[in-house]
Amino acid sequence: MSLNGSIRVQAESVSVDKSAVDAGEDESYTGVRDAYSRFGVTATYPLSNGTTLGAKLEIPFNTQQMQAEDPSYFEGFYKENNAPRVLKLTATGDWGSAAIGKQWLAYYNAVAYPVDYFSSFYSGFATYAGFRREAATYTTPSFSGFSATASMVDLVDGGDETYLDTTQASLNYSLDGLSLAVAYQDTYNGKADLLGASAAYTTGPWRFATKVEQLDSPDETTIGVDPMMYNLYASYQLNDYTFKAHYAKGDITNDSTAYYQGDSYHLGADYQYTKNLKVFVEYFYEERAYAIYDEDSQSYGQFADTNTSGSALAVGARYDF
C-alpha cells in the first residue's frame, strides 16, 4: 500500500469583459485558486495465477477553501462536491484489465486526455467529455499496438435514471511515439451521442496532439446544430523546462448554457525544479467564459450564458508525492 498526493496552488490575475456582464459590473480580480490538489492511497495484491488485484482512493482537497472538495465544482453536478475523485477496484493480467467504481472514463482517456497537459486550473475545459464517474470497464490486452475498451457508465446520477445509463467504447493504437484513438458515447438522458478521435505524436523533445469531437443530438431544434470541437496542442521540452501551446475551437450553438462555445488559447511553461516540485506560468483566454470563474465562486461557469470573454494569467506550483 502506498500514499500519494499532489498539492497544486496558483496565484492568478483574471480579466472579464465587463461590458457583457449584467449591469456592466467589473468581475476582474487577482487572487489564489486551487489547481486540483488531492490525496490518495493505492494498494495492490498479486494472485498466484498472474492477475493483480488493486484498489485506489483519491480525495480532492481545495487549498483555497481548506476543505475536501472539487475546486471546479463539477463533482456537485454528479453527486456531492466533496465526493472522492476516484474510488475503484481493479484487476490486471494477461487477459487485459477491469475496473469497477468511480474512475476516469474511457471516452475522456481516449479523446480528451491527449490535449489535457497543462498544470493550472484551466486545463481540460475544452471538451464535451465527462471526466470521472462510477463505471464498469474492461480493456483488452494490446495486440500489435491495438487495444479496445468498453465501459458502462453512470453518467447521470438521478432517481429516475438507470444506474449504468451510458455506454462508452474506444479503439486505441500506440506504437513508436504515435497514439491514435476513436471513441463513442451513446445517448444519455435524451441528450446526444458523442463521437471523438485523437492523435498524438512524440519525437525527441516535441509532442503534438489533436482531437475532434461531435455531438449528434437526437433533437437538433434543442441546440440548433450538432456542435463540433477541434483542438491542437504542441509542447517542447528543453532541459527542465517544458513549453506548451493549445488552441481549441468550439461551434457556437443556440443553447449557450449547454456546451462550450467559441475559441480558446492556452500558453504555458513548466519548470521541474526538483523531482517532486514543479512551478508553472500560464496564460489562458476564452471567447465565451466557461472556465473563467469569479473570485468567490461556488459553482462553475457563471458567465457561460453570456457573450462574456475572459483571460487569466496564472503563476503556481505543484508538489507531487
* Helix and strand element order: EEEEEEHEEEEEEHEEEEE
> How would you describe the shape?
globular
Assign the structural class, choosing from mainly alpha, mainly beta, alpha/beta, alpha+beta, or little secondary structure. Answer: mainly beta
Helix content: under 10%
**Count of alpha/pi helices:** 2
Q: Please give the CATH architecture.
A: Beta Barrel
Spatial ordering of strands, largest sheet: 1-3-4-5-6-7-8-9-10-11-12-13-14-15-16-17
Radius of gyration: 20 Å
How far apart are the first and last residues' alpha carbons, in Å? 14 Å
Biggest sheet features: 16 strands, antiparallel, barrel
CATH class: Mainly Beta
Oligomer: single chain
The fraction of residues in strands falls at over 45%
Q: Provide the CATH superfamily.
A: Porin
Number of domains: 1
Q: Please name the CATH topology.
A: Porin
| Low-confidence runs | none
How confident overall, as mean pLDDT?
89
Number of strands: 17
